[in-house]
Design goal:
Shape of chain A: globular
Order of helices and strands of chain A: EEEEEEEEEEE
Distance between the termini of chain B: 41 Å
Number of strands of chain B: 12
Structural class of chain A: mainly beta
Distance between the termini of chain A: 32 Å
Number of helices of chain B: 0
Number of strands of chain A: 11
Helix content of chain A: under 10%
Oligomer: heterodimer
Largest sheet of chain B: 6 strands, mixed
Chain lengths: ~120, ~120
Amino acid sequence: ETGVTQTPRHLVMGMTNKKSLKCEQHLGHNAMYWYKQSAKKPLELMFVYNFKEQTENNSVPSRFSPECPNSSHLFLHLHTLQPEDSALYLCASSQDSAGGYPSYNEQFFGPGTRLTVL
Amino acid sequence: AQSVTQLDSQVPVFEEAPVELRCNYSSSVSVYLFWYVQYPNQGLQLLLKYLSGSTLVKGINGFEAEFNKSQTSFHLRKPSVHISDTAEYFCAVSVGEYGGSQGNLIFGKGTKLSVKP
């Protein structure tokens, strides 16, 4: 595997289900991100992990729960979602610098998980 | 706060014609600018970026963009498009060194480029 991979590619779930999205990066990066891409809305940053520590949580509802067990893996745990949560969920990674200074390196994106909530 | 405006949601163009996709941004601090492309059923791929130096930036697949600070623009151009350029294009801005982290990429709403034979 190369780059950033995401599984599953497609997911259909009911509002009472619990599921998880998985992201893995094979680039040796130290920062990982979750984005939500909805129709007719800009790409929304959800969570940022830098050196396995969560550094951003952009007012995301608690029904979305991220987990970053190591710098190569990122999960998004889903429970009691709403139909409006249906979207493409994109994972990305980058090589960020230490000390909180931005490195300006590009973010590498996975292919996304197309989520449909019934 | 930073924001990005992509003025055209859809741009249809014939094959081998030139194309310009417009992007304007607003920011009170120095910014770094990016163009990403998203092909159907794929993630985003970086086309090019402006960090500093020459205001004309060349990217992959024959695309280029020009940073214009006075007009706060970063328009994307290609002199001759191909059918394979059909995709959605996103302009993005990140804050400068006195601002937030690399994670704060602010994206525009995207422009769908449709190249017709």
